[in-house]
Structure formats: C-alpha cells, structure tokens
Amino acid sequence: MGSKIADWLDERLGWRSVWEAIFLRKIPKVNWLFTLGSATLFVAVNQAITGILLTLYYVPTPDHAYNSVQYITNEVAAGWLIRGLHHWGASAMVVLTVLHMLRVIFLGTYKYPREITWFTGVFLLIIVIGFGFTGYLLPWDQKAYWATTVGTKIASVTPGIGDWILRVMRGGPELSAVTLARFFGVHVWVLPSALMALSGLHLYLVIKIGISEMPGKDD
Amino acid sequence: MNEKKEIDRRSFLGMATWAIGGLIGAGFGIPAIAYIISPATRKDEAQDWIRLGSVSKVELGTPTLFKTKIERQTGWITKEEELSIYVLTENGRDFVAMSNICTHLGCRVRWISDQEQFFCPCHNAGFSKSGEVVSGPPPRPLDQYQVKEEDGQLYVLGG
Amino acid sequence: MNEKEKKDYLAGYKKAKEKGVHFYPDILFKDAVVSLLIFILLAALAYFLGAPLEERANPSDTNYTPKPEWYFLFLFQLLKYFPGELEVIGVIVIPTLAIIFLFLLPVLDRSAKRHYSSRPWIIGITSVLGIGIIFLSIQSIRETPPPAEAGLGDPIAALYAENCASCHGPMITVPEGTNLHLIITQGSHEGGMPAWSGDLTNNEIDALAGFVLSPRGHELFNSNCGECHETAELVSSSPIELKAALNLGSEYPAHSELDIPNWDEVLSAQNRTSLLNFLVAPDGQRLFAINCSACHGRSVAYTGEEAELESLISQGGLHLEMPPWQEKLSSDDLDALARYVSSTDASAEDAELFSQLCSSCHGTLIPQMNDFDLARDKIATGGAHETMPVWGEVLTSEQLDALVSYTMDASEGTPLEVGRDIFSKNCALCHGDFGEGGVNPARPDDVIAPISSAEYLKTRDDHTLFQIIAQGQPNFGMSPFGSAFGGPLDDDQINTIITYMRSWEANPPVEYPPEMTLPDNVDLSGVEIFETLCSQCHRPDGSGIGPVLSDPDFQKNNTDQEIFNTISKGHPNSSMIAWSQILTDDQILQLVKILRNLNNDGSEAGTSGPASFANDVRPLFEEHCTICHGQMGGWNADTSENVINTGNNAPSVIPGDAKNSLLAQKMLGTQSSGGIMPPAGLLAEDQVRIILDWITAGAPDN
C-alpha cells in the first residue's frame, strides 16, 4: 500500500531521484566535527519555528511590546519554552556558526572548489550577527533599550556619515517607536529572507560539491 | 559476507534517525499546539457580582435598562467595557436580568415600549417582555444573568 | 593552485567518496543525534534559566549600566582601549579588517595544502583573533559592574528626571535666594507649573530643592554617602547633626563603627559646603522650619535692619544678652513686667510696657514663668541667651543668607496670615469672616453666596479668582480691588488673599451636609442638643464643618454674645440655620457654655493605649528639644536611658514619678530652677500628656 502511493507520487513528482541525489549520495567518511554545519541549520530552523510562534502574540510598539512579552512568558501555555528556545537558540546560533567556521578554517575546507560556499558562509555569519543585534531590542526592557542605544551610538563613530547612519538605524535622532518597528521589520522579514536565500545557496553548493574529507598530513 | 549485517546496521540507523526526527518534531509540535490554542482554552475570568444600581430605578412591569462598566483583561490589555442589562420585575421582589445581546447574531436589542417587545434591528427579531422569542430568527430566548438584591442595590453575576 | 593540483584534488576526492558512506542514514544519523542534544540543551536552558526580562525600558533612568549580549562584549570591550578620536579604530577599522580577512581567506591562501601543519600563517592569525575575542569577552565580564547595583542608584536624580526634566530639561539654574521649596510646593500659575505638594512628600521636595541648588553637592553625596544613606532620610535631619558628622569623621558617634575617612581631610571646605547646601538646601523657609520654629514659632517679629538680623542669627546666643533691666527701670516697672510674664491677669499697662521694652527681641512669644519672684529676678539681672545656637558655625553662608531673607519676609507674617488679615479688612464685610456670605450690604434684597464651599473653590482656578478680585463683579455690586482697576490692593496682596482662600479647601467652612435629622422632641439639655444636633455637622469635638470650635483663635475672637447670635440667627447661606426657631434662648445659652468648654477637654481624645518611646515620645523630643539639646546641652534624647540619666541636673526623669521628674516640671512650668521648656512656650496639651504618661508608666524603652 505504502509503496503504491510512493510509486504513484514518484511518477508525478520524481521524488526518488531527488531523494537519491540528496540523501543517498556518497560522501567521504568524516568525524563528528562535520555535524557542526547541520547543527547550525537545525538551530536556524529552531529560530524560525519559535520566532514565527512568538509573532503570534508579540506586538512591536513601545506601549505593548513589553506587556506582550510578559504575557507570552507568564500567561501563554509553553510560552516560557518557546521564548526560552528562541533566546538561547540565538546564543547557540552564534556559537555554532563560529565553531563551524573555525572548523572550516582549520581543515582548509574553504579552498578549491568550495570558495563560493565560503563567501556565502561569511555573509551568513554577518546575517546571524544582524539577527542578534535587531532581536534584542524587541522585548523593550531596560537591557534592550540601553544596549541598543549604545549599539546604534557606536555606529555613529563612522567618519563622515556616522551621524546619518545613526539616524537611519534609529529612524530619527532618538530611540523611539520608529526604531522598534524597523528593528522588528528587519528581524522578521529582511534578515530571514536573506538568510533563506543565502543558506539555500550554501546548501546547494554543499550537496553539489560534497563535503570535504579530513585532510591527511600530506594534503 | 557482512552484507547482511551492513544492511541491518543501515536500516537500524535509518529507523533511529526517523525516530529522533519524530522526537524533535514532537518536542516542537506539542508545545507549539499548546502555545497556539492556550488563549482559547483559558477559562472565563472568575465571575463576580456587578452592581447595577438602585432597586428603586426598576419600573414595575417594564424592562429597565441598566448600564454599567466592567474591566476586562484581554491578553495584555485591560479595557473598560460597557455592559447593558435589562432588568424586569413584576412584583418588586423577584427580578429578571437579561442581556441586551440578540441570541441570533449578537446585535443589540432595545425595548420598544409601544409594542411591548424587545426589537433587534438587524433581522427584525422580536422578544417578549420576559425575553422569549416572539418573531424572527433567534434560536433561543435572551440570555439571563443571575441576579440578587442587597441593601436596595441590584447585582448581577458576570465577568 | 594550478590546473594539475585541481585535477589531483578532484581525483582524490572522488576516491574518498567512493570509499565513503551514504549521507542517509550514516551521516544524517549523527546530525540527528547532535540536533537532539542541542534541542535538549536549549530546552533545559529555557527551563532552568528562562529567558530574562528586565524592567520595562525607562529612557529617563540615567543609572542603568548598558551591557550588550555576550557575543558583542568583545566589541564593547575593544572600545575601552580606543578612547576619544581613536574610537574609530576600535569601532570601524578593526572589525572591518577582520571581516575582510575572513572574506578573502580563499583568495589569500591559494596553496593546495590543506593540512593545518602546512598553513601556519592562517592558523596563527585565526588563533590570535579567536583568543583575542575570548580574552576581550572575559575582560569585559570582569570589568562591567553588575547592573542591579547601579540600577538602584540615585532616587533624587530619578525624581528630577520623572517630574521636572520634561519641562526644565536636564538642569535648572535659579537666581540666588530663590525660595525653591515654596515654588515647588505651590507651583506657579503664571508659568503653568503645577503645585507638587500633592504628589511629592516634603522630604522629596526638599531633596529636589537641594539637587537644583547644589548639583555639585549631589554628586559628592552620591560618591561619598550614597552607599549607606538615602537622600530623603538625611534632608530632614538637623543641620547641626550633619555638620557634626562631616567635621568629626569617624569620631561621630553613629559613624564610629564604620570604616570611613575623616571627611574634613577628604573633602575640601568648598566641597563640604556644596554637600551641606545639597542636603540642607539654602531655602529660608525650610531652614526656619527646621532650625528656628521649635523656639520661635511660625515667625519672629523683627523690625530691624537685615544686616543686624544676619549677625544676630550667625552669632546666636553667644552675644545676644539681655541687659540687666534694674539699671534702667524703676522697681514698679520691673514688678509690672514680672507680673505680665508670670500671670495671666496682667493689666493693659503691663502689656504696653512689655511691647515697648521686650518685644523687639521676644516678639509675641512671651517667656513664661510661673513664679513671680523668679521672673522679677531674671528681668532685673538679665543674662546671656544661652539657648540659641551659634548658627554662623553651623550653616553655610548660602544657607544663612537664605534664612535671613526668609526671616525678614516672614516677620511680616506668613502669606496665610497676611492673607487672612487682608481678607478680614477688605472682604469680610460682605463675604463674612470665613467666606460664608450673607446679606449683600449694597443691595439688601440680594444674598451673597458662600465663596468658601469646596465646590466653589474647586471650580475656580487661581487665575479666575485673581480676575474676580482685581476687576470686581460690577453686576453683583463688588467693586474692583486690584490697583490696576483703581482698587486698593496690589497683585501680591491679591495673591495672598487667594492663598488664604485656598487654605479653606482642606476644611471648607461652608459645606452643605447631606441631611440633618431633627428629633421629634427638642426638649433636651444643652449637652444632649450638642450631641444629637450640633455634632452632626460640627463633630463631637467641634472640628467638623465650619470654623474649628475648639480653636483658641475662634474662642478668643468671638464673644459669648456673638456666638449666641450666630446660633440663634444662623448664617443665611450656609446650612447653619437660625436655631432660635427650634431652640429656646436658654438652650442656646447652654450651648454657648458647652462651646466654651470644648477646648479644655480635647486632651482626652488623643491618648489610646500606652505611649511608645520610639513611636510617640522620641519624635516629640526630636521635634521640640534636640534642636538645642542634641549637640549643645548635656541632655540627650536618643534612648530612654539617656533621657533618664543625662543632663546637667540628672536624673532628668524619675521613672514612674512624673511629678518629681525634672523634665516634666520643666515642661509644665513647675520647675524650681531655670526657665520653662521649650522656650517657645508649652507644648500642646496632648503632647504633654503623652510624655507624662510615658514617665508614669516607668519610662520604658519600647
């Protein structure tokens, strides 16, 4: 019965060839260090799922943001878990991205033919940092407010256009409702789009070229 | 020679992988469902006696409209809501408190004293003095509140 | 990497793949295991640590120490090493270089070698960057103070930010001699500043005044005292104590256990002055209230020059001596003065003599003595005025200036008193003594409505009242009173009238009670009438609606006949009806007698339960006695033991025996030596009762 449905679907979708290309492909024997990339992917998925769930209740305005976060944490069933997973997932994301990158550097994996994979990886790192920066204004608590005040202020040191950058980031001279709204927009629309596009490319290259083997002493 | 063993090992690994995937899926899925439906399953707030006003304001034999404000907590917002309740008494001792919300689609009914009827302007429904459906589509009589009298004041149970 | 190397690599990789395993399930299984572990770890973190949520964002909280998320700490720390103009290096140059280095890695390192032992440079640079980031992060965690401590910080700055900064900005400068306490308390109706007395406590207002007047002092307070003290707790303490604490350093009793420096070595004289100006703001009204009113009452009568007053205050009792009057006066005159001081039935001539000779120093506060001979002796021989502290040694020059200028102003009376005076001269004729209104003298058919009801005062703001008084109400026969409209009063005087009228708001003299119940039978005795009828409005103790019947002023200003008339005829506009229609003259006469007795039995109401030293008795001592006795006299009121055992004539208190306790005698004026205490005159009767009861109860330390 199951195989009949599978056949029926395969005739129309051709999923078996996709399955074979992605999952049944042969790759060199590697050690546990090579799970760092997929671990990062897992945490990214975790952030997406919990992030989407958080937006069900979260309101990005200064008069409601804090209350809605409090509501999520204290009132909604499993709200503490969803928010906790998202919060700690953010830290895990940074840790895993950096560890993944260090592994690539130490094993020389960025070399031919995987240069493009590396470039997209560096962009992905910057995006992850962007997630962290825009994300922690959103609860609108003391830490959020002041750390973002300082964070945006730091950008204004840029010679020449610093003040302009500051105003663009904050949407005005001060941290305000406008800042919160645009940080929210960037955090849930702009960065996720970029993340999906770039990680799509990153994964395509990984599958297409294959993961590298452990280099021997002579390689 | 080890072919069979190898196949066993791989099918075991495959199953284990699916099992772990299922575990993680449940780890996300169950809390997510609870998280999504939680506000809907929340019990109505504890009901409390709401003061309507003085008993002496109720006219004998005519539904009298009382308006009162109650605070309602929805999500993270507390707002004041106006509650309109018709109170009817035939003898000055036994009171009936009726909601002014039409049981059909939730429009507000009003008392038309000429016709001795509650009238709902949305679909021309009519209710009798005591709230029974007289005409139109409503499925049941007007909702009633539990009512009590204390020190000359009327209270209804609501929240 | 040349073409051959590329080919070699691809060939080698192909071989490795062939020897390798399928992605599913071999590799995917490992990934799944790792993912599960990460999921469990994250869920555990969420469960055990939760996601932190601090207080709601508060942009006016200037004390919060911002600290970024841990993965930005290294960047935050980096900034500390690049101060000023170099900041751009830490913020822009280094991070940009690091990113560019990462990005160009495949371009920089193009050799075919992959093993780390063949690539020392890349591994080296990466390791240095990584270790640097870890080091900076650890450094940052070690150096950043925990935010909670700093968060508590500075309530006064927060108070300012919350209440004042939105209009006044981060800082106000006020001209010298400004009576800030008054301004903050009453607000300013021209400037649109609200009266803060409703929202802030007196201590908070004082602390704010100090904050505005001496910002430097506020800084010094935070850095030196803030760790142990709250501002609000210190602003209400006596300047003598504060000065002593500053001068004595660790020898100051309360500081003796503490490891603190000698403030006179650590802080310059100027800084100490700033600090005192912050804690005891140069605000005359408050200084007077704290320092002077215990002896001098609400104001002193003083008519001399300002400079003279300044030297009087700053030199205090040291140089202020009462002349031996026997050299100047006849024996008869001495007798007259002693009579005036020691007994209540002095003649008008005696009073005249006193006001000629004595009141320039003593004001209206007559030193009381019960014994005629003692009084005569004291007047005849004169003597040093020992009780007044040498304020010049205690107060800063700013405080002294403020105190002097306030005293000069206040010697004309407080605004309230001045207002009452002006009101009674100009307004009371038509509006009645307390605004109850009555028949309009200009138009006998009209009745003037009360202007002292809560409703009247609530519905008119100060500006409207000012307009009414200044321009008059020609339609109702009220002539303009403002000098601008040809009337007798200037703007200040009108404002004092308004101040006086506002004082009615607390206890409106005219108020319509809801309903009055009359008994069927009014054939009652005076006491019964008062209890059943009068007290419905006036309360059993006479403190209800209308004038406070037990108030000495009320008793003094109204003759029996006047009180009789008021009861019998009523006030046409208040609910005080003409009782002659209901009561007989005889009953009204009884009521007058009862009213006269009201101020005598007020004391019975106050005491309930045994007095506690800490809660009831010590506050009285602190309010009335320690202003002089704390630092100067030998007597000390901080513990019950000291109350009993210290003092030049110790024991001051004989527990259980109030009659023979020196303290009680002094307080009641029955002492055998020295003057009555406090010198301003007897304490209120209920206060005396509390202290006496406490002594009788054995002077417990409770």
TrEMBL record, chain A:
<keyword id="KW-0472">Membrane</keyword>
<keyword id="KW-1133">Transmembrane helix</keyword>
<keyword id="KW-0812">Transmembrane</keyword>
<dbReference type="GO" id="GO:0016020">
    <property type="term" value="C:membrane"/>
</dbReference>
<dbReference type="InterPro" id="IPR016174">
    <property type="entry name" value="Di-haem_cyt_TM"/>
</dbReference>
<feature type="transmembrane region" description="Helical">
    <location>
        <begin position="118"/>
        <end position="138"/>
    </location>
</feature>
<feature type="transmembrane region" description="Helical">
    <location>
        <begin position="88"/>
        <end position="106"/>
    </location>
</feature>
<feature type="transmembrane region" description="Helical">
    <location>
        <begin position="186"/>
        <end position="207"/>
    </location>
</feature>
<dbReference type="Pfam" id="PF00033">
    <property type="entry name" value="Cytochrome_B"/>
</dbReference>
<dbReference type="InterPro" id="IPR048259">
    <property type="entry name" value="Cytochrome_b_N_euk/bac"/>
</dbReference>
<feature type="transmembrane region" description="Helical">
    <location>
        <begin position="32"/>
        <end position="59"/>
    </location>
</feature>
<feature type="domain" description="Cytochrome b/b6 N-terminal region profile">
    <location>
        <begin position="5"/>
        <end position="215"/>
    </location>
</feature>
<dbReference type="InterPro" id="IPR005797">
    <property type="entry name" value="Cyt_b/b6_N"/>
</dbReference>
<dbReference type="InterPro" id="IPR027387">
    <property type="entry name" value="Cytb/b6-like_sf"/>
</dbReference>
<dbReference type="GO" id="GO:0016491">
    <property type="term" value="F:oxidoreductase activity"/>
</dbReference>
Automatic annotation (TrEMBL), chain B:
<dbReference type="GO" id="GO:0004497">
    <property type="term" value="F:monooxygenase activity"/>
</dbReference>
<keyword id="KW-0472">Membrane</keyword>
<dbReference type="InterPro" id="IPR017941">
    <property type="entry name" value="Rieske_2Fe-2S"/>
</dbReference>
<dbReference type="GO" id="GO:0051537">
    <property type="term" value="F:2 iron, 2 sulfur cluster binding"/>
</dbReference>
<dbReference type="GO" id="GO:0046872">
    <property type="term" value="F:metal ion binding"/>
</dbReference>
<keyword id="KW-0001">2Fe-2S</keyword>
<keyword id="KW-1133">Transmembrane helix</keyword>
<keyword id="KW-1015">Disulfide bond</keyword>
<keyword id="KW-0812">Transmembrane</keyword>
<protein>
    <submittedName>
        <fullName>Ubiquinol-cytochrome c reductase iron-sulfur subunit</fullName>
    </submittedName>
</protein>
<dbReference type="InterPro" id="IPR005805">
    <property type="entry name" value="Rieske_Fe-S_prot_C"/>
</dbReference>
<dbReference type="GO" id="GO:0016020">
    <property type="term" value="C:membrane"/>
</dbReference>
<feature type="domain" description="Rieske">
    <location>
        <begin position="89"/>
        <end position="156"/>
    </location>
</feature>
<feature type="transmembrane region" description="Helical">
    <location>
        <begin position="12"/>
        <end position="37"/>
    </location>
</feature>
<dbReference type="InterPro" id="IPR006311">
    <property type="entry name" value="TAT_signal"/>
</dbReference>
UniProtKB/TrEMBL annotation, chain C:
<keyword id="KW-0349">Heme</keyword>
<feature type="transmembrane region" description="Helical">
    <location>
        <begin position="27"/>
        <end position="49"/>
    </location>
</feature>
<dbReference type="GO" id="GO:0020037">
    <property type="term" value="F:heme binding"/>
</dbReference>
<dbReference type="InterPro" id="IPR036150">
    <property type="entry name" value="Cyt_b/b6_C_sf"/>
</dbReference>
<dbReference type="InterPro" id="IPR027387">
    <property type="entry name" value="Cytb/b6-like_sf"/>
</dbReference>
<keyword id="KW-0812">Transmembrane</keyword>
<keyword id="KW-0249">Electron transport</keyword>
<dbReference type="GO" id="GO:0016491">
    <property type="term" value="F:oxidoreductase activity"/>
</dbReference>
<keyword id="KW-1133">Transmembrane helix</keyword>
<feature type="domain" description="Cytochrome c">
    <location>
        <begin position="521"/>
        <end position="599"/>
    </location>
</feature>
<dbReference type="InterPro" id="IPR011429">
    <property type="entry name" value="Cyt_c_Planctomycete-type"/>
</dbReference>
<feature type="domain" description="Cytochrome c">
    <location>
        <begin position="148"/>
        <end position="283"/>
    </location>
</feature>
<dbReference type="InterPro" id="IPR009056">
    <property type="entry name" value="Cyt_c-like_dom"/>
</dbReference>
<dbReference type="Pfam" id="PF00032">
    <property type="entry name" value="Cytochrom_B_C"/>
</dbReference>
<feature type="domain" description="Cytochrome b/b6 C-terminal region profile">
    <location>
        <begin position="13"/>
        <end position="137"/>
    </location>
</feature>
